[in-house]
TrEMBL record, chain A:
<dbReference type="GO" id="GO:0042823">
    <property type="term" value="P:pyridoxal phosphate biosynthetic process"/>
</dbReference>
<feature type="active site" description="Schiff-base intermediate with D-ribose 5-phosphate">
    <location>
        <position position="94"/>
    </location>
</feature>
<feature type="domain" description="PdxS/SNZ N-terminal">
    <location>
        <begin position="20"/>
        <end position="225"/>
    </location>
</feature>
<dbReference type="GO" id="GO:0036381">
    <property type="term" value="F:pyridoxal 5'-phosphate synthase (glutamine hydrolysing) activity"/>
</dbReference>
<dbReference type="GO" id="GO:0006520">
    <property type="term" value="P:amino acid metabolic process"/>
</dbReference>
<comment type="function">
    <text>Catalyzes the formation of pyridoxal 5'-phosphate from ribose 5-phosphate (RBP), glyceraldehyde 3-phosphate (G3P) and ammonia. The ammonia is provided by the PdxT subunit. Can also use ribulose 5-phosphate and dihydroxyacetone phosphate as substrates, resulting from enzyme-catalyzed isomerization of RBP and G3P, respectively.</text>
</comment>
<keyword id="KW-0663">Pyridoxal phosphate</keyword>
<feature type="binding site">
    <location>
        <position position="178"/>
    </location>
    <ligand>
        <name>D-glyceraldehyde 3-phosphate</name>
    </ligand>
</feature>
<keyword id="KW-0456">Lyase</keyword>
<dbReference type="InterPro" id="IPR001852">
    <property type="entry name" value="PdxS/SNZ"/>
</dbReference>
<feature type="region of interest" description="Disordered">
    <location>
        <begin position="1"/>
        <end position="21"/>
    </location>
</feature>
<comment type="similarity">
    <text>Belongs to the PdxS/SNZ family.</text>
</comment>
<feature type="binding site">
    <location>
        <begin position="248"/>
        <end position="249"/>
    </location>
    <ligand>
        <name>D-ribose 5-phosphate</name>
    </ligand>
</feature>
<dbReference type="InterPro" id="IPR033755">
    <property type="entry name" value="PdxS/SNZ_N"/>
</dbReference>
<feature type="binding site">
    <location>
        <position position="227"/>
    </location>
    <ligand>
        <name>D-ribose 5-phosphate</name>
    </ligand>
</feature>
<protein>
    <recommendedName>
        <fullName>Pyridoxal 5'-phosphate synthase subunit PdxS</fullName>
        <ecNumber>4.3.3.6</ecNumber>
    </recommendedName>
</protein>
<dbReference type="Pfam" id="PF01680">
    <property type="entry name" value="SOR_SNZ"/>
</dbReference>
């Protein structure tokens, strides 16, 4: 390192966009926060006022996608642009799994993050999109460590649990987070000889498996998604190791969205303080009704989508 | 002299990375979410994150006034990105009701470098940081439109002010905590040490 004062030196690099550090770093800025599903500009403003760190712009919340059936696709660009105009916080939007043209469209609209999401109907039953081909970062769902690392190997800059979106039932998100955490803990104990077999077993690149073994965490930010409906749900996910929370149908399918949204934000920050969570849970009105996941037929389980 | 204790405002944002960077720069680092925790630290980092969210939570949980009081009282404070916005006396384009702690006589423009697709890395020469320029990671970053007479500009990028110091308050548009280069944090830890020295004499 030279001993001269650096302010006399001229910067040498030209600015680089879309680097791994910029993409992953964006997710780091969302940590400790709540990302809320919104279907119009009005809801986006309510979310922002409640303290959301970002909004997910989509035409129908997962609960309605379940109810309506049919093919669920990327949202109308007009609707996404209206939401981008309405708020100053980051705006995310969903593409179908493997539908890289929807992702290209979302990038051209200037969304801040693309969710390659199992909540929409998959467009490719074998391949996910090549996320390195984009400047816009991607978040992807995972039910276990191998799936998370396969998505990271494809360029995902953030991982979320899949949960079972649109059910108001947190049981699947808990399962996914526990699974990912347990598998990471197991890797921590492995020596170098064992990591090759572990990579094979996880169906994930050896380099990423080794990195997780050394870090004791994913190399990208891990959020919870799917089924969070109450402040206590959000705090539960954080105590289980999620670095932040996506809330989909749980807010705008409830009795008093503004109040519930603010309450979930508080509980996400003070996830380890039961008194604050209790206060946040008072008089929120009706929560979304919810669906018991064990009555969901296999074909309607979003968590099975993606590979 | 004992090791300085530096808090990281842990309402939302990349708290963990700042805690790691501070520890690497030989400070005792701990998260701060409550007024009583703020009272126990020698200096404070306001991390990157969503400035609207951090501002709202600070007001909601009774931290905004204690923060202002400590900064007015001379406690060293460093803000990166959203933290820079929180330390600005004025935001050019605030969301309605968005409050700041203040402490640096400057006007900031939020997301001035653009949305995420325009986020970038570039090397930045920072006055007071010796050696090579630092790797600046700019994420939906603000810039400083103008500074008052008491504020010193430490770095510029593309003709815009991206690092400022005024007394014991330091702010950067970019995120040194994401780079593994702890020199900016070391500069801040030195500021905290210098602030503590007269008291411990």
């Amino acid at each position: 390192m030279s001993s001269t004062l650096s302010h006399t030196a001229q910067p040498t690099d030209t600015p680089a966009t879309g680097t791994a550090r910029v993409k992953r770093g964006m997710a780091e800025q969302l940590k400790g926060g709540v990302i809320m599903d919104v279907v119009n500009a009005e809801q986006a403003k309510i979310a922002e006022d409640a303290g959301a760190v970002a909004v997910m712009a989509l035409e129908r919340v997962p609960a309605d996608i379940r109810k309506d059936g049919g093919v669920a696709r990327m949202s109308d660009p007009n609707m996404i642009e209206e939401i981008i105009e309405a708020v100053s916080i980051p705006v995310m939007a969903k593409s179908r799994i493997g539908h890289f043209v929807e992702a290209q469209v979302l990038q051209s609209l200037g969304v801040d993050y693309i969710d390659e999401s199992e909540v929409l109907t998959p467009a490719d039953e074998v391949n996910h999109s090549d996320k390195f081909a984009f400047t816009t970062p991607f978040v992807c769902g995972a039910t276990n460590l191998g799936e998370a690392l396969r998505r990271i190997a494809e360029g995902a800059a953030m991982i979320r649990s899949k949960g079972e979106a649109g059910t108001g039932n947190v049981v699947e998100a808990v399962r996914h987070l526990r699974q990912i955490k347990n598998e990471i803990a197991r890797l921590r104990g492995y020596d170098n000889n064992e990591l090759y077999a572990a990579a094979k077993e996880l169906r994930a690149p050896y380099e990423l498996v080794k990195e997780v073994s050394e870090l004791g965490k994913l190399p990208v930010v891990l959020f919870s998604a799917g089924g969070v409906a109450t402040p206590a749900d959000a705090a539960l996910m954080r105590q289980l190791g999620a670095e932040g929370v996506f809330v989909g149908s749980g807010i705008f399918k409830s009795g008093d969205p503004a109040k519930r949204a603010a309450a979930i934000v508080k509980a996400t920050t003070f996830f380890d303080d039961p008194k604050i969570i209790a206060d946040a849970s008072r008089n929120l009105g009706e929560a979304m009704v919810g669906i018991n996941c064990d009555t969901l037929p296999e074909t309607e389980r979003y968590a099975n989508r993606g590979w | 002299m004992s090791t300085p204790v530096i808090g990281v405002l842990a309402l939302q944002g990349d708290v963990r990375e700042h805690l790691i960077a501070l520890a690497a720069a030989d400070a005792v680092a701990r998260p701060v979410r409550r007024p009583e925790e703020l009272a126990e630290v020698d200096g404070l980092v306001i991390p990157g994150g969503e400035s609207t969210t951090i501002s709202k939570l600070a007001v909601l949980f009774g931290l905004m006034e204690p923060l202002r009081a400590r900064v007015r009282g001379g406690m060293p404070v460093y803000g990166s990105c959203a933290g820079m916005i929180m330390l600005a006396d004025k935001i050019l384009d605030p969301r309605s009701g968005q409050e700041t702690v203040g402490g640096i006589d400057m006007i900031v423009r939020r997301n001035a470098f653009g949305r995420q697709n325009e986020s970038f890395e570039a090397s930045v020469a920072v006055r007071g940081v010796e050696g090579e320029p630092v790797e600046g990671v700019f994420i939906r970053a603000p810039w400083v439109e103008s500074v008052g007479a008491r504020a010193e500009v430490l770095a510029e990028h593309g003709g815009h002010i991206v690092a400022v110091r005024q007394g014991n308050a330091l702010a950067t548009s970019f995120h040194p905590e994401l780079t593994g280069d702890h020199r900016v944090h070391a500069l801040f830890v030195d500021m905290v040490r210098a602030y503590r020295t007269p008291e411990s004499l």
